[in-house]
Each structure stands twice: as C-alpha cells, then as structure tokens.
Design goal:
507 residues; alpha+beta; 5-stranded mixed β-sheet; 4-stranded antiparallel β-sheet; 9 strands; 40% helix; zinc-finger; zinc; Znf_SWIM; zinc ion binding; metal-binding
Length: 507
C-alpha cells in the first residue's frame, strides 16, 4: 500500500467505504482506495471502534500524522467519493477540508428508492414514476442548467400532493454539487460516478481474504491485512504486468478499432501538451499531461477514441491509457514487487525491441494484432489448420451469395427481435480481420466425455442429447427455495420492489 502513495492517481479521486462484522468485537474497517489503470488499489486501511464521527476523525488524523503526503505527494486528494454517511463525510471535511466530496450515484438512487418505497401514502405506480423522474435524464443526469431547472419544476409539480417528499427533495437538492452529474464536468473523476471500486474491495475482503468468516480478534485481522491482503493485490498487479489478464488489451483493442479512421492530418500540435483533433464535424482538444479530452466521453478523464488515436499516431504516453506498453507494465510490476521487480526488458514483446528512453511505434504492437500466416499448420486445439488463400472464383461465389441474401432479406417476414440480432451480428464485421476471425477453419477437440454408443444417446429424452451423466432418482418433494431478489436497482424500480443489499447488516 505504501508504494501506491506517490502515484499521480492517488491525488485525483479517492474512494472510501466502511464495513464491520469482520472480527469478534465488530470493529469498523475503513478502506481508502485510488483509481489506477488496472482498477482500485488500497492506500490505507483503518480499524476503529465504531462508525461515529469522532472515531472517524481519530482514524483520519492518525493517517495524516503518519503519512502526511500519502495522496500523490499532496496533503489532501482532489476528490473523495463515498456514500451518504453523515459521520464519515463530517470527519473528512474536518480533517481534509480542501478536498471536494462527491456522492456515489448508486447509493443516492438506492436511498431515494428506499424512502419512496417505504412511504405509506403513495400509490405504487407513483413511486416508480417519481423515481424515474429523479434518476433518469431528468435530474441526476441533467446535461445543462436549463434542463435541470425544467426537471426540477416538473418533479415538484407532479409530487405537490406529497409535501414531505417535496421537503426531502428540496433539502437534497441544496447539495446538488455532490451528486448531480452536471457539476462534475470540470472534475477529474476518470468517469467514476459510483464507488463500485470500494464495494468490490469490501467483497474481496469478506469473501476472499476472510473466506466469509470472522477473525479471532483485531490482532488476527491485522495479520490478514499484512499478509493475505497484500499478497492478493501483489498477485493481481503482477498478472496485469505480465499480460495474464486480457481485459486490458481487449479494452484497448476495442477503443483502437473506433479510432482507426483518424490520420495524421486530423491532428495538430498546439504546444504545451495540447493537441487538436478533428472528428467529423467536431473539433476536440486533448491535454496529454492530465489525460483529458474535450469530448463528452473524455471530459472527466476517461480514455476515449481521440486519445487512443493520438497515442497510436504520435506515440505519446497518456496517464489514463490502459497499460499496454512495456513501460506501463514495468511500472505495475515495480508497484507490485518493489526492488524485486525484473528489468524493463523483461516486459518487452519477443519480436519487438523497445528503447528505454522513448516510446517507439513498436511499443504499441500487441501480440493480439499479429496477422496469422495464411499457410499456418497446427495440431493444437483451436488453432488454424491448412488455411489456403482464397481463389478469385471462390470470391465471386461469396459475392453472389451475399447478393442472394440481400434479395431474401427484402422479402423475409422477420420479427423485430430477429432483425436486431441479425444487425448486431453483421455489425461485428468492421475490418478484414473480423471477417477472417469469424469464418476461420478451426480444429475442434472434445475431451472429458464418456464414450457411449450412438443408439443410447438417441434414446435419451432430454433436450441435451450428449454423453453427460443424467441425474437419477426421484424429484425432491420439499418446497422450492425462494429465489433471492436480484441486486439490480433499475429492474427492482420497474417491478416496484425493494432493492437487495450486498453485504448484509454490517455494511
């Protein structure tokens, strides 16, 4: 955790959350996390007696006294994001008054729905209507001051018969800078509007580190944090550094496909780390030292296609780009292993040579983009075998078949759902490589199945006619267990049901 303190990401936005019921005395655990290129990493873990404001202040003051520059070399971060806990927010304001505080959008919507659902005098249909006016594009996600005022008037007009809700809404609207998306456009949140990072970290703590059990006491809990907790994050970081996690390269490849239409002529260097990029009828400004773009996607610091195009064409490293270069991977490994980290050359691709001083073009040549040899031969599972180049006659046949399918679509009586599904499948083919990957000839190998006679498979009455073991015996006569309600707020709002909790009463 200490190696995470000097990173630049540790001074931007900090996620904070608390939980309890992790050891026999039910002490409160408060976790601070920073948003990095590969997810959330812990900055500090504080254990205190209860969730009152004074205990929070004592814990935060202790952190400030021992690690005064733990927020990226600053004495306070730019933003704290938390749920609406008055004790926690009051303590943050007392210890770090310079930092801005934001509310998690999910917790705001969940608290609003719980209040509406528990209201006895409202009709069920009205509860869902008020919630949709509050949560949708109306109030929380208003994109301008005019739209916000119109949404406010519309909501107050429809709920004028419920003065207690009007009072609650007006009081909460007084804190609009904490939860309305419109007032976050000038803040570097890296497109994080919820504290899902801290929610996931609490689940990792209880489910993975503690294995859904309680520690014997606080000392044993500290042992878990110093041992299992640190080892868990070290392992995950090194997996990203050694490309064992494909999510980063998949995300980068997805953004890169969207930015493939940009050329050098679309970019213009404005000096002072500023670049102008032409995108259709619009022009956007990219600030490379911060990692922001003036487009709607990258305005708050998220990685967008315009930044990806700049990264590909100018070979410039951005602070918010996925870690796909050897330099980025080496930094992750250094964060995970410290002085035991291998040298930078260890993270270079086998076929590429990278200069240690500058980022060259081959730093962005990922193994996933390497073209497959047309005459490749392989006997491994899922590999291309005997791929021969296509002839002109075969190419003409394919074009004729596509014309025939065009005529079939014109007269076919398709449903809306089947039409949407067909469009989605066709939209997956954007480049020549996409077409080759979909219809490439692959060798199929099936293992781990019992060899049985074909007639025995044919006699099976189930829909899945395979060689799997069929469950035998009588069906249970006991009553079916009730299905747990899904933790999906929008779905439960539409069904007029209370939303499920994630961590139980101790969270």
């Amino acid at each position: 955790m200490k190696r995470n303190h000097p990173l630049s990401s540790s001074k931007e936005i900090i996620f904070i959350d608390s939980t309890a019921s992790c050891e026999t005395s039910s002490s409160t655990i408060t976790i601070m996390l920073s948003a990095t290129k590969v997810g959330a990493l812990p900055l500090a873990v504080m254990i205190h007696a209860s969730q009152c404001m004074q205990n929070y202040i004592n814990a935060f003051e202790l952190l400030k006294m021992n690690f005064p520059q733990c927020f990226g070399g600053q004495d306070h971060p730019d933003i704290f994001m938390s749920d609406d806990s008055s004790a926690e927010k009051g303590a943050l304001a007392a210890v770090w008054p310079e930092a801005k505080q934001l509310l998690c959008h999910f917790h705001v919507a969940q608290a609003e729905w719980r209040w509406l659902f528990s209201h006895k005098m409202m009709e069920q249909e009205e509860k869902s209507t008020f919630m949709k006016l509050f949560q949708a594009v109306q109030v929380m996600y208003a994109d301008s001051e005019e739209n916000l005022l119109d949404a406010e008037k519309n909501l107050l007009l429809k709920c004028k018969n419920y003065p207690d809700y009007v009072k609650r809404f007006r009081n909460f609207l007084a804190r609009k800078k904490e939860w309305i998306l419109l007032f976050r456009k000038d803040l570097i949140t890296r497109n994080n509007n919820t504290n899902n990072f801290s929610e996931a970290s609490i689940q990792i703590l209880k489910g993975v580190i503690l294995s859904r059990t309680r520690a014997f006491n606080v000392i044993a809990l500290c042992e878990f944090f110093l041992g299992v907790w640190e080892d868990y994050f070290t392992k995950k970081l090194f997996e990203f550094a050694t490309s064992r996690r494909s999510s980063v390269t998949v995300f980068y490849d997805k953004i890169r496909k969207k930015s493939s239409n940009f050329t050098e002529n679309d970019l213009k260097d404005l000096s002072n780390n500023l670049f102008k990029i032409n995108s259709g009828e619009h022009t956007y400004i990219i600030k490379t030292d911060v990692g922001v773009c003036s487009c709607p996607s990258g305005l708050t610091g998220a990685f967008c296609k315009h930044q990806c195009a700049l990264m590909e064409l100018k070979k410039i490293r951005l602070p918010n780009a996925p870690p796909v270069t050897p330099e980025d991977k080496h930094e992750l490994a250094l964060l995970a292993l410290g002085p035991k980290c291998p040298p930078k050359d260890f993270f270079c691709n086998f076929k590429n040579q990278l200069s240690s001083a500058t980022v060259e073009s081959n730093a962005f040549e990922l193994p996933i983009e390497q073209e497959t040899d047309n005459n490749a031969h392989s006997n491994n599972e899922g590999q291309i075998i005997n791929a021969k180049p296509i002839t002109n006659f075969k190419r003409e046949e394919i074009l004729n078949e596509l014309k025939r399918i065009t005529d079939v679509v014109k007269i076919a009586n398709l449903s809306e759902e089947s039409g949407d599904r067909l469009i989605r499948n066709l939209q997956k083919i954007q480049t020549v490589k996409d077409l080759k990957n979909i219809y490439v000839l692959k060798k199929q190998i099936f293992r781990g199945k019992i060899k049985v006679q074909p007639t025995s498979i044919a006699r099976r009455k189930s829909l899945i006619r395979s060689s799997r073991r069929i469950p035998s015996g009588r069906p249970l006569k006991t009553e079916k267990k009730s299905i747990k309600r899904k933790r999906n707020l929008s779905s439960n709002i539409n069904l007029n049901k209370m939303n499920a909790k994630s961590h139980g009463k101790g969270h």
